[in-house]
Design brief:
The chain is built from 22 helices and 26 strands. It has 755 residues and is an alpha/beta fold. Strands 11-16-15-14-12-13 form a six-stranded mixed sheet. It has a five-stranded parallel sheet with strand order 4-3-2-1-10. It has a five-stranded mixed sheet with strand order 18-26-25-20-21. The longest helix has 24 residues. The structure holds alpha-D-glucopyranose. The site of alpha-D-glucopyranose has 8 residues, from loops.
Length: 755
């Protein structure tokens, strides 16, 4: 009898045996059924692991990329042969029902036990229907829409054979020189944690055995965003308090939300590379937080510990990684090549290997892959699930919601559709870059809607729309300038679409100069000379330094990389069919010298007097203000909002009481619009210094012109907890300020004491 049937028979006999003694309890406690489901899985895994050889177990701890995509320094083309030999139990960078079925068949039919492969892929902000980059999505502050975007990505990815996404990226980032800020949710811990949870919910849904849910992966654990100098993969050396206050909370939030997997980061943390860091991977993640999924490394990050200088060779690296708590080796082959030897030498226990293997098999089981390894390879479902009208509409809506209006002098936006428009810039008619980096299986050739195409759907008289590229994204070539200047002179208003190329942010894309690349600013200056009103539409994966633009350009709209439907969404915004509502989740510096720059800073012992910001002997610069050009939480609208009547239900609270704060918000302009009201707290005196502000709540509301709404927030002492002088996590009694407003600078304030 085939080994698989033996396993099945053995486990069913165990299962029914268990059921027999418990069946009377199933009827009265549903959760016992869940336990029996776990008992069923546990007995299945027991039976399976009892018959697995050590080689087969090690194979489950190995993940290899196909040669379909290169997402790291090296590719190993022998993945098919290794699958056939049972040496690779997991594959990434493979999709379509056809290809995954072919690879799955190899594992099921050619290996002794036929353990199904797990297919992973970087489905970060959409799979075929590409949503705005994650930093853009975060600027929507719309958790429901963010969750829905991840849900759609999961449905499309699962329809193409994918079981597991390497997302959400939850790295807090305060240094825009680091290109990977584009993949996260910005600088704030509270917002970042809420978004992390929304993305896990979206990807995993509430039933992993469904055919449209996939495993999520919290990455890159941990503190990858604190790389010195914003230089990717660089050293991270931060205090335990900074680690636990700023970088760990979003990861902990994903564990609380039931995330299935974690991915280690490339960086070292305080001298020990994360991939070999037992304190992070076992003591905190698995023991303190009780994480039950599995930990995969990032791309060859085990082998890279040799370069880090913490081990002498790949064999030592494998030993350090597995004993630290790594369960699966991405692309490095270190586990494949050395684990068996290390066990024979007693340097790694087989018990440790069994724990890792079990955590991996358990998730394959929960996906239902042992019942039907081909359940995600359904060509019919694939045909009906990709880039549906509904999915594209959701991407368009998110692209609108993600955009942030940074400036709108003399209200030149929205532009009426009868104006003569000159559309200029290297990103105005560009399908390749508009979907940004990490765009999975997103098409870059035909499907994306460019800004030019979007504008054409709005402007009936085609002679009113002129287009010239004007310049390249990153070049000093001026040959296109004259054509651009010529159409600008004929126009009533000029819309310039500029920014970065998609590969100027994302992985291995750190920059020290955050100005518009190439000679884009030169072209802007030439067009400015025409004296015509100019709207600058930005596409970029990180905050840029825009002092000149802020000074000289009438309107600026930040659209990030807005995805497949970006061009039509931008047209919706520019012509007023949608009123911008996005708010920045990362501060925009005035210049690179200010970095790291973020809103929840400490006061220092020599804080500036805002009325005299360059005063000597204060914590400031000689040549630039301390404040960012655009602060965290900032974003304008075509209408205006007024905050008034901030009230608090009482001024003294005990530790077990709720605190309710209310404010009236009025739409004082002439457009219907959405506003993100933000609530910040300041702990005035602590056993350690405390930030001037910390975001603790937010709410996005829609108001018609002239309409007012009362918005209430409730917090309690749990929201005031922090790592105190002795590193215990708790709130302390004392005086607090509450700030409520439209961004982290423009706020009303009140206060209370906690007794
Ligand atoms: C890359 C990235 C990681 C990605 C992985 C697989 O190096 O760091 O975010 O998920 O490799 O492509």
């Amino acid at each position: 009898m085939k080994i698989k049937k033996l396993i099945l028979f053995f486990s069913l006999s165990v299962f029914f045996g268990v059921l027999g003694c418990k069946k009377d309890s199933i009827q009265n406690e549903n959760n016992v059924l869940l336990n029996n489901k776990n008992v069923k899985m546990e007995s299945f895994l027991d039976s399976l692991m009892q018959v697995m050889t050590l080689d087969e177990k090690i194979g489950q701890m190995v993940l290899f990329s196909t040669d379909w995509e290169k997402t790291g320094p090296s590719i190993n083309n022998s993945y098919k042969k290794l699958v056939e030999e049972g040496k690779v139990g997991n594959i990434f960078n493979a999709y379509t029902s056809k290809f995954t079925r072919e690879l799955q068949k190899t594992a099921i039919e050619n290996t002794r036990l036929g353990i199904p492969l797990l297919f992973g892929y970087d489905v970060i902000h959409g799979h075929r229907t590409i949503f705005p980059i994650s930093l853009g999505e975060s600027a929507s502050w719309d958790l429901e829409a963010i969750e829905n975007g991840a849900r759609i990505a999961a449905i499309e990815a699962a329809a193409e054979g994918i079981h597991w996404t390497f997302a959400p990226m939850v790295d807090i980032a305060r240094d825009p020189r680091w290109g990977r800020v584009s993949e996260g949710a910005g600088e704030d811990v509270y917002l970042g944690s809420e978004i992390a949870k929304a993305r896990v919910r979206g990807f995993q849904g509430d039933d992993l055995s469904a055919t449209n849910t996939i495993l999520a992966c919290a990455k890159h654990y941990a503190a990858y965003g604190a790389a010195q100098g914003g230089r990717d993969y660089n050293t991270v050396d931060i205090s335990e308090r900074e680690l636990r206050t700023t970088y760990l909370p979003p990861f902990k939030a994903t564990v609380n939300e039931g995330v299935a997997t974690f991915m280690t980061s490339f960086n070292e943390l305080n001298g020990v590379p994360v991939t070999g860091n037992k304190y992070l991977l076992t003591d905190i993640l698995k023991t303190e937080w009780g994480f039950k999924g599995f930990v995969v490394t990032d791309y060859t990050s085990i082998n890279e510990m040799v370069a880090h200088g913490i081990v002498k060779d790949d064999k030592e690296a494998a030993e350090l990684a597995v004993n630290a708590g790594v369960d699966m080796d991405m692309q490095g082959a270190a586990f494949m090549d050395y684990l068996k030897e290390l066990i024979a030498e007693g340097k790694v226990s087989e018990k440790k290997v069994d724990e890792s293997v079990r955590s991996i098999l358990a998730l394959k089981y929960q996906l239902g892959l042992f019942d039907d390894p081909y359940k995600y390879c359904d060509e019919e479902r694939e045909k009906n699930s990709l880039m549906t009208t509904e999915n594209l509409e959701a991407a368009r809506d998110m692209a609108r919601k993600s955009s942030v209006l940074l400036k709108n002098n003399k209200e030149i936006l929205p532009i009426s559709k009868d104006k003569k428009i000159a559309l200029i810039g290297p990103l105005a008619d560009n399908k390749w870059d508009i979907i940004g980096s990490w765009s999975a299986a997103g098409d870059r050739y035909e499907k994306p809607v460019t800004v030019l195409e979007g504008f054409k759907t709005k402007i009936s008289n085609s002679s009113n729309l002129m287009f010239a590229k004007g310049c390249e994204i990153n070049s000093d070539d001026t040959k296109g300038f004259n054509e651009a200047i010529a159409i600008a002179k004929k126009a009533d208003v000029i819309v310039m679409v500029m920014g970065e190329s998609q590969d100027m942010s994302g992985e291995s894309a750190s920059r020290t100069n955050l100005d518009l690349p190439g000679n884009q600013k030169d072209l802007l200056k030439e067009i400015k000379k025409t004296g015509k009103p100019i709207v600058l539409v930005l596409m970029n994966g990180r905050p840029l330094t825009l002092e000149w633009e802020n000074e000289h350009i009438d309107a600026i709209l930040e659209t990030w990389f807005p995805g497949t439907m970006g061009g039509i969404a931008i047209a919706d915004l520019i012509f007023g069919d949608y009123n911008p509502s996005g708010k920045l989740t990362m501060s925009f510096p005035r210049n690179v010298g200010q970095i790291p720059i973020y809103y929840n800073v400490k006061n220092t012992g020599r804080p500036i007097d805002p009325k005299n910001p360059y005063e000597k002997y204060k914590s400031n610069y000689l040549d630039v203000l301390n404040s960012p050009l655009y602060p965290f939480g900032y974003g304008l609208s075509y209408t205006t909002f007024e905050y008034s009547d901030l009230s608090i239900d009482k001024n003294k609270f005990t530790f077990n009481e709720d605190i309710t704060v209310s404010v009236i918000i009025k739409n004082t302009g002439k457009y219907k619009g959405e506003e993100v009201a933000q609530l910040y707290v300041q702990d005035l005196v602590g056993s350690v210094t405390r930030p001037l502000k910390e975001l603790k709540r937010f709410e996005k509301i829609l108001l018609n012109p002239g309409e007012s709404k009362e918005v209430s927030f409730t917090i309690n002492s749990k929201d005031l907890a922090f790592y105190t002088r002795d590193m215990s996590f708790k709130a302390e009694p004392g005086e607090f300020k509450i700030y409520v407003g439209t961004n982290s600078q423009n706020v009303l304030e009140t206060q209370f004491s906690l007794k």
